[in-house]
Design goal:
The complex is a heterodimer of chains A (about 300) and B (about 150).
Chain A lengths: L18 H30 L5 H9 L9 H17 L9 E5 L6 E4 L3 E5 H4 L5 H16 L2 H19 L1 H12 L4 H4 L4 H19 L6 H11 L15 H15 L12 H8 L17 H10 L5
Parallel strand pairs in A: 1-3
Antiparallel strand pairs in A: 2-3
Helix pairs in contact in A: 1-6, 3-5, 3-9, 5-9, 6-7, 9-11, 10-11
Chain B lengths: L1 H34 L17 E12 L2 H13 L7 H21 L4 E12 L10 E12 L1
Antiparallel strand pairs in B: 1-3, 2-3
Helix pairs in contact in B: 1-2, 1-3
The chains are: A mainly alpha (about 300), B alpha+beta (about 150).
């Protein structure tokens, strides 16, 4: 009998397909699945977070936000404006806001969990009159009223959990950040719709308190000046509505309800209060938000958050 | 940071693994062509009235999977289907084991090898997660020397 071996053909036992093709397919489909999952969870977070009682938010934050040492008159004045605005905005039962002064040069203000509103010295120093200040406060109170902070925090936690599945180090870091109270200022990025609706509510509150909305646009002009007019690009991709659009909204509101009424000036001593509370006065204050020497974590949070107004 | 390490390992695994695989396939095909003159037969029954001297010959090879292949196989675990990243690896291992067996038989001056069998065993070390990811493929048979 004649025995022989022939050369076996290739491509039967092992696929001849390029491995990168399979890699691309698998990675894309798995990523698409996880993205879909995250979107679904985001929708659920958005739908469910309104059922989280406000007291839970307050309890989360109460130990962690300490009011900075500041001029008592300034605190009194800010509280007073906030109270007048909140009265107009009919906040739900049990919801209160607390205004904090931040000794930061950043031109910014935040609303965070538990109705905490933080105003940076940099912004306060640039506001020309009380109406602009009221616009800032009303905008942030509207965020609190709409439960935007808890929604943002919820999304942050979910995103961090999802990331932790992919990269434990990155995910854990982010998760820690999301759960730690010092830095979640930086995590809370609100959507364009949330910003717009906060603007609308804020204008309504101003209308209620002052009888007109004149001067509200001054806030946006301050912010625009700060950005140096660098607002190129499509509004769709930016979290904040274009300043022009926001100013236009103020103008529209003014046309409907406002007469040619004068704006309310800031108290005479306002600039002095800022200096007294800040470094200029020589009174060094406690770090931004943290109580326990977490300056490093807290300080960048205020700077990073420069896009939230 | 660990994402960076991961991507580097992936790229290294792909680059080096792919290069080594192509090189190995070239070598396998070349040696197979040369050793086709020594047939390896799976049949248990040798030619009748043979006066050849029988002798046990074997060849074994241990191969390990690279990072890239392991990653693809991991993703494949999620969706199911043909694990094409491991297939060329085992294909190479089987052919290499048969070649080594043939080389041994060739040195002994064999005319053919009968009753060729293949065995695979997994080499594991440590816990399940960090296991070695290697297999041994053993080919053995009876060489007939005239």
């Amino acid at each position: 009998m004649e025995y022989s071996n022939r050369q076996p053909p290739e491509g039967i036992n092992a696929s001849l397909e390029h491995p990168l093709k399979e890699f691309a397919w698998l990675t894309a489909s798995v990523l698409a699945f996880f993205l879909l999952l995250i979107v679904v969870i985001f929708v659920l977070v958005d739908a469910l977070c309104q059922y989280i009682p406000f007291e839970v938010e307050q309890r989360l934050m109460s130990e962690h936000v300490t009011t900075q040492e500041t001029a008592p008159e300034l605190q009194q004045y800010l509280d007073d404006v906030a109270v007048r605005l909140s009265a107009e905005m009919d906040l739900p039962e049990g919801m209160q806001v607390r205004v904090h002064y931040l000794d930061e040069d950043t031109v910014n203000a935040f609303a965070t969990l538990g109705g905490q509103i933080l105003l940076c010295r940099g912004l306060l120093a640039k506001l020309p009159h009380e109406n602009a200040l009221a616009m800032v406060l009303a905008h942030e109170i509207a965020h609190v009223k709409n439960r935007d902070p808890i929604q943002g925090a919820g999304r942050g936690v979910v995103l961090a959990l999802a990331l932790a599945m992919v990269s434990s180090q990155m995910g854990n870091g982010l998760l820690e950040q999301a759960l730690s109270h010092e830095t979640n200022l930086a995590m809370l990025k609100y959507s364009r719709d949330q910003e717009s609706s906060a603007d609308v509510e804020a204008l309504a509150a101003l209308q209620g308190v002052y009888g007109h909305v004149n001067g509200a646009d001054a806030l946006f002009r301050v912010l625009e000046e700060e950005k140096g007019g660098l607002e190129i690009g499509l509004e769709f991709f930016s979290t904040h509505p274009f300043t022009e659009n926001r100013i236009a909204r103020v103008a529209a509101a003014a046309a409907t309800g406002g007469a040619e009424q004068a704006v309310t000036p800031l108290p005479q001593a306002f600039a002095g209060w800022l200096r007294q509370g800040g470094v200029d006065g020589g009174v060094r204050t406690e770090p931004c938000v943290a109580e326990t020497g977490k300056l490093d974590d807290a300080a960048p949070a205020c700077n990073q958050g420069a896009s939230k107004r | 940071m660990d994402l960076l390490i991961f991507l580097t390992l992936l790229a290294l695994g792909y680059g080096i693994g792919r290069h080594a695989e192509k090189k190995h396939y070239r070598s396998i095909i070349q040696r197979e062509t040369a050793l086709n003159r020594l047939p390896a037969i799976a049949s248990k029954i040798p030619p009748p009235r043979s006066t050849h001297k029988p002798m046990l010959v074997s060849g074994s090879v241990v191969i390990s999977v690279d990072y890239f292949k392991r990653f693809i196989a991991g993703l494949r675990n999620l969706v199911g289907g043909r694990v094409t990243s491991y297939e060329p690896l085992l294909d190479r291992a089987r052919r290499e084991a048969i070649l080594r067996m043939k080389e041994e038989a060739d040195q002994a001056g064999a005319e053919y090898i009968f009753n060729v069998k293949l065995e695979t065993s997994r080499i594991a070390q440590g816990n399940r997660r960090n296991s070695l990811g290697s297999v041994e493929v053993l080919a053995y048979g009876t060489a007939f020397i005239p």
